[in-house]
DNA sequence: TTCTCCTACGTCAACGTTGACGCAACCGGC
DNA sequence: GCCGGTTGCGTCAACGTTGACGTAGGAGAA
């Protein structure tokens, strides 16, 4: 198999000895710094190659004056969630351009876990962090920020001052969806949303309310279901809605999995071609369902790119006042959101 | 905003000075080592707290004898791909239990990029790596392995000796799918697969061939389309198949996106209830389509857990011969795979 | 010629931490 | 009272690298 488990990695000293120069000269050659003649450079390069020398970045960053680890931390809610994964990928791409690697973790929306991961990152002296803040109190984040760690919040803004953020047009786009449904003639538009501890959920609900107000519709409390965690909860909530004496003729589902659950319930009753539905956040195969699901699509790569751009600016020393970037979501019409209300409902 | 950009992180020396002890004693307290009296421990803890001291793991791992960075590298093809993302998440969960963080990167199935990321990880002295090998030559991986870096390959086995791997029952499960289709009476079963440079694609094709052989069916070359990269290629390939004089009555699609493309083409022609389809790899909403898509589901969390278990064993010093773990995939019947051939085809 | 400046190296210490070891004070046993 | 062992600290050097600085030798100007 293997000559032996772990042999010692060669160091600059080994290279220096072989090339018959000082370690400082090796350092100069490795880092392409001036002060080494062409002949020496070649000798050192050859020695490094033959030993398989690779610099030790941890030792280097310990000694260097800028103290950079060429590593950033990414702390999202759940890396296996497609939204988070796409975001991570976008940040990673941008990081790679800077020769920076990404330490990634899932906070599970748990403040304690987030705090733990935060100190884990700090202990490794990452150059900066891109964080999806957990629902509750953000004091761990704030403390970290106050220590001077460059930080950018994505998807949800900070509850404290002085920190950059990148979010989507949660409120405006939600309003837009409700307005579209109302324009078709819908009067009873239901709202199904995720946990209200999440900022995005609250924003989308507010957008829903604005949409109703904007079109002169009245809010019917029995048409509002919040704090639905996962598709199953959404499915039962939808069933409850459809059992009402006056069921909704249209639904706005404010999150991915909620949309899926609602679709399932509609389909079970054969109502998926009769009740209009607009969902927040696109998902794969949304166009393959019958009918195609109309959604508000977030520009996830743009979110990630923007977050990465901000964090690297800060790491680069940018001291300007905090930016709160907002990336627009787009309404993608596929059929489910264009279903008109039944004629009986528009009667005299 | 901020008192000033980046103030210096407090060090052990600062804590030692405040607590009026030596740095060594601080080290003992921080690491819960014996040799410090209760009173001193309290003094040091108080000092550390009041300064907001946090140990510097890079300095620590430089000096420690075991030289551990408490970090592993994960190198997958594309972190935004749900399969990779779920795998990453499973590895991450296991890593967290060991207090280990994950450096993640996407190799894009590009050997040069993989080599680059590999050295990036090595430079940071990760304790081990979990890698999805790129299609072509694996010499960069092999070199890394020969240096003694603990390594586990996932999804695709090594082309060299002495390295652990975790894969799925690609071949056996593919055969099983074909056998099920043949048992329903299908005679013309098409194969649609991803790039043949990928080991998984080749295995699944072999399984297809085995399935044909096992049931006494003949291979019709015009029913085989390989090297389909993405849903669009799969869609046109499917269209070509359906235009044949004797089109297939069943299809085996050997990858996620290929399945989606094939579904799209079938649906465009209104044949989705007539042509049987079994896909490799599950995907969200597969059950919501009409008909539900029958798939071979990989146990992704199990793959990830196993990979993590292996890598941590190796890091822990396990010297036993290499393991090649194989996690079974399951056939999930949802409708599309249970469509019988048209009666005209089974005639005399 | 002598003075200055530049190039191409080398020496030394330090980054923050811990392993090896030293040493004083105290304990118990005889 | 002396001896051996333990407890509770401290001192020193080293991990692999680089910043600050030193210096020998040659080129060029005066």
From TrEMBL, chains A, B:
<dbReference type="InterPro" id="IPR028082">
    <property type="entry name" value="Peripla_BP_I"/>
</dbReference>
<dbReference type="InterPro" id="IPR000843">
    <property type="entry name" value="HTH_LacI"/>
</dbReference>
<dbReference type="InterPro" id="IPR046335">
    <property type="entry name" value="LacI/GalR-like_sensor"/>
</dbReference>
<feature type="domain" description="HTH lacI-type">
    <location>
        <begin position="10"/>
        <end position="64"/>
    </location>
</feature>
<keyword id="KW-0804">Transcription</keyword>
<protein>
    <submittedName>
        <fullName>LacI family transcriptional regulator</fullName>
    </submittedName>
</protein>
<dbReference type="InterPro" id="IPR010982">
    <property type="entry name" value="Lambda_DNA-bd_dom_sf"/>
</dbReference>
<feature type="compositionally biased region" description="Polar residues">
    <location>
        <begin position="162"/>
        <end position="171"/>
    </location>
</feature>
<keyword id="KW-0238">DNA-binding</keyword>
<dbReference type="GO" id="GO:0000976">
    <property type="term" value="F:transcription cis-regulatory region binding"/>
</dbReference>
<dbReference type="Pfam" id="PF00356">
    <property type="entry name" value="LacI"/>
</dbReference>
<dbReference type="GO" id="GO:0003700">
    <property type="term" value="F:DNA-binding transcription factor activity"/>
</dbReference>
<keyword id="KW-0805">Transcription regulation</keyword>
<dbReference type="Pfam" id="PF13377">
    <property type="entry name" value="Peripla_BP_3"/>
</dbReference>
<feature type="region of interest" description="Disordered">
    <location>
        <begin position="152"/>
        <end position="172"/>
    </location>
</feature>
């Amino acid at each position: 198999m293997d000559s032996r488990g772990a042999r010692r990695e060669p160091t600059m000293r080994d290279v220096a000895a072989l090339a018959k120069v000082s370690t400082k000269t090796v350092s100069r050659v490795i880092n392409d710094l001036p002060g080494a003649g062409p002949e020496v450079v070649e000798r050192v390069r050859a020695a490094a190659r033959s030993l398989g020398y690779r610099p030790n970045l941890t030792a280097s960053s310990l000694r260097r004056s800028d103290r950079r680890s060429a590593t950033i931390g990414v702390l999202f809610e759940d890396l296996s969630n497609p939204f988070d994964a796409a975001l991570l990928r976008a940040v990673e791409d941008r990081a790679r351009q800077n020769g920076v690697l990404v330490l990634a973790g899932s906070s599970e929306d748990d403040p304690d876990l987030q705090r733990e991961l935060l100190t884990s990152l700090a202990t490794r002296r990452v150059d900066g962090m891109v964080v999806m803040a957990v629902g509750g109190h953000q004091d761990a984040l704030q403390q970290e920020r106050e220590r001077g760690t460059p930080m950018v919040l994505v998807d949800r803004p900070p509850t404290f001052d002085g920190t950059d953020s990148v979010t989507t047009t949660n409120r405006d786009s939600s309003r837009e969806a409700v307005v579209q449904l109302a324009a078709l003639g819908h009067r009873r538009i239901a709202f199904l949303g995720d946990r209200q501890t999440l900022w995005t959920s609250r924003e989308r609900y507010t957008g829903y309310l604005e949409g109703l107000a904007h079109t002169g519709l009245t809010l019917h409390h029995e048409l509002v279901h919040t704090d639905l965690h996962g598709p199953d909860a959404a499915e039962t909530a939808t069933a409850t809605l459809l059992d009402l004496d006056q069921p909704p003729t249209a639904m706005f589902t404010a999150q991915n999995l909620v949309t899926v659950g609602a679709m399932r319930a509609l389909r079970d009753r054969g109502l998926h071609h009769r009740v209009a539905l607009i969902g927040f956040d696109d998902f794969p195969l949304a166009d393959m369902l019958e009918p195609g699901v109309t959604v508000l699509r977030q520009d996830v790569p743009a979110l990630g790119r923007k977050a990465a751009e901000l964090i690297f600016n800060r790491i680069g020393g940018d001291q300007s006042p905090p930016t709160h970037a907002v990336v627009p979501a787009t309404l993608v019409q596929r059929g489910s959101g264009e279903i008109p209300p039944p004629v009986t409902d528009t009667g005299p």
